[in-house]
UniProtKB/TrEMBL annotation:
<keyword id="KW-0408">Iron</keyword>
<dbReference type="InterPro" id="IPR006313">
    <property type="entry name" value="EfeB/EfeN"/>
</dbReference>
<dbReference type="InterPro" id="IPR048327">
    <property type="entry name" value="Dyp_perox_N"/>
</dbReference>
<comment type="similarity">
    <text>Belongs to the DyP-type peroxidase family.</text>
</comment>
<dbReference type="InterPro" id="IPR011008">
    <property type="entry name" value="Dimeric_a/b-barrel"/>
</dbReference>
<feature type="domain" description="Dyp-type peroxidase C-terminal">
    <location>
        <begin position="239"/>
        <end position="420"/>
    </location>
</feature>
<keyword id="KW-0732">Signal</keyword>
<dbReference type="Pfam" id="PF04261">
    <property type="entry name" value="Dyp_perox_N"/>
</dbReference>
<keyword id="KW-0575">Peroxidase</keyword>
<dbReference type="InterPro" id="IPR006311">
    <property type="entry name" value="TAT_signal"/>
</dbReference>
<keyword id="KW-0349">Heme</keyword>
<protein>
    <recommendedName>
        <fullName>Deferrochelatase</fullName>
        <ecNumber>1.11.1.-</ecNumber>
    </recommendedName>
</protein>
<feature type="compositionally biased region" description="Polar residues">
    <location>
        <begin position="1"/>
        <end position="10"/>
    </location>
</feature>
<keyword id="KW-0456">Lyase</keyword>
<keyword id="KW-0479">Metal-binding</keyword>
<dbReference type="GO" id="GO:0016829">
    <property type="term" value="F:lyase activity"/>
</dbReference>
<dbReference type="InterPro" id="IPR048328">
    <property type="entry name" value="Dyp_perox_C"/>
</dbReference>
Length: 434
């Protein structure tokens, strides 16, 4: 979990509070054809009917004056653009990752039809509208809630579609790492979809629509669910925390950085041409061994990370964004930031300038039979070239990161994510129709 990079991991300002209730508005009750976009300015209310003894005997719709959506619900990301959505936006409260394999007999033609369907669905849902067909009504009462849907291609996709000559060299399989304990059934895939939103029902609605749209062309290979802190949960914007309680993402690259595009996105003149303005996503399910981690004292945890737990400041002093002094020693002459500290090892200036943009989600998938939590990080990092981004940093972590005792990499994938589609295009059109 390289320190240099979790997302634009800043929590948005708390939204203005407005009265809201989960019931449908009269307009929503008038027919299934009402779009979510038509409801963006209103929300209904529900009356709870109580019996004489005070027990609930039923629910009845109660008229209510129209009230605006909260700022959380009205947030909207654009589907069309230079880059696909879901890369440079801030962390979202909930997310789903899903990988598909093309069905037996499906090839380039079927893949193009599938990406056309997926793109049409994603565009509508991100605008706050119902799915193009067979909408489930799960998100009927909500606004877009900053929904993003992002699509990528795995290594095997190109052989299945006869496009091996268009497969980028940067998509070659990742090397083995000593900390890997990978479940092949939950790794890789021909196609990958990332869904994020600030409302759980909106995110699930998109997941279900994408899965249904796959039809007979592709089958689900694996699927994972994640979450982050909700917008407005903190008194002011701040870097997110992971399930270890650490501020995670202090050194993430920022779009305002002069070299941001060069590090994160394939240049317009890059190869192959269909990847212009795209990026490569490394996806890892990293289990945190929380029982072991939580046995450490707070001070010992800080030695492992190299930063203060309370505010994310380096152990060498200052605030969260203060440059870490790697040479500073204590009264006994020992380095204040240990040689094996995670934050020291992952610094870009110690890795040939390697940088990646992280947009992860935490996850919790219950407990093992012995009570051990199955929880950790759905690690997602973006870079122009994984061989210069993720790989060198992970190799260095493999050789001496103190954090490696407390995490386990359990699944992995690498996906080529093309640039954003222009108006009237679908994602991947420049590849599939080349």
């Amino acid at each position: 979990m390289p320190d240099q990079s979790v997302s634009q991991a800043r929590t948005p300002e708390p939204p203005a509070r407005t009265p809201e209730s989960p019931a449908r508005t009269p307009a929503a009750d008038s027919g299934r054809g009402v779009s979510r976009r038509a409801l963006l300015g209103t929300a209904g209310a529900t009356g709870l009917v109580l019996g004489a003894a005070g027990g609930a005997v039923g629910y009845a719709a109660a008229p209510a004056p129209a009230t605006p959506l909260t700022s959380v619900g009205s947030g909207r990301a654009m589907f069309h653009g230079k880059h696909q959505p879901g890369i440079t936006e801030g962390l979202q409260a909930c997310g789903h990752l899903i990988a598909f394999d093309l069905a037996a007999g499906a090839g380039r033609r079927e893949a193009a039809a599938l990406l056309r369907r997926w793109s049409a669905t994603a565009e509508r849902l991100m605008a706050g509208e119902a799915a193009p067909h067979d909408d489930t009504d799960v998100a009927r009462d909500a606004g877009p809630s900053s929904l993003t849907v992002t699509f990528g291609f795995g290594y095997g996709f190109f052989a299945r579609t006869g496009l091996e000559k268009q497969r980028p060299a940067a998509l070659n399989p990742l090397p083995d790492f000593s900390a890997d304990r990978l479940d092949k059934a939950r790794s890789d895939g021909d196609l990958w979809v990332q869904i994020g939103a600030n409302d759980a029902l909106v995110a699930f609605h998109a997941l279900r629509a994408i899965q249904k749209d796959a039809g007979a062309a592709a089958r689900v290979r694996w699927q994972m669910n994640g979450f982050n802190r909700a917008p407005g949960a903190t008194a002011h914007p701040m870097t997110a925390r992971n399930l270890m309680g650490q501020l995670d993402g202090t050194r993430n690259p920022k779009p305002a950085d002069a070299d941001f595009d060069r590090r994160i996105f394939v240049p317009a003149s890059g190869e192959p041409a269909w990847m212009a303005n795209g990026s490569y996503a490394v996806v890892r399910r990293i289990r945190m061994l929380l029982d072991d981690w939580e046995k450490l004292s707070g001070g010992a945890q800080e030695q492992v990370i190299g930063r203060r737990k309370a505010d994310g400041a380096p152990l060498s002093g200052g605030g969260e964004t203060t440059e870490m002094n790697l040479e500073k020693t204590d009264a006994q002459g020992d380095l204040v930031v240990p040689l094996t500290a995670h934050a020291r090892i992952t610094r870009p200036d110690r890795n040939g300038g390697a940088a990646m943009l992280r947009r992860p989600f935490s996850y919790h998938d219950g407990f093992d039979a012995d009570g051990t939590p199955d929880a950790g990080l759905l690690f997602i990092c973006w870079q122009a070239d994984p061989l210069r981004g993720f790989v060198p940093v992970q190799r260095k972590l493999d050789r001496g990161d103190a954090l490696s005792r407390f995490i386990r990499h359990e699944s992995s994938g690498l996906f080529a994510v093309p640039g954003g589609p222009a108006k009237g295009e679908y994602v991947g059109q420049r590849l599939l129709e080349s």
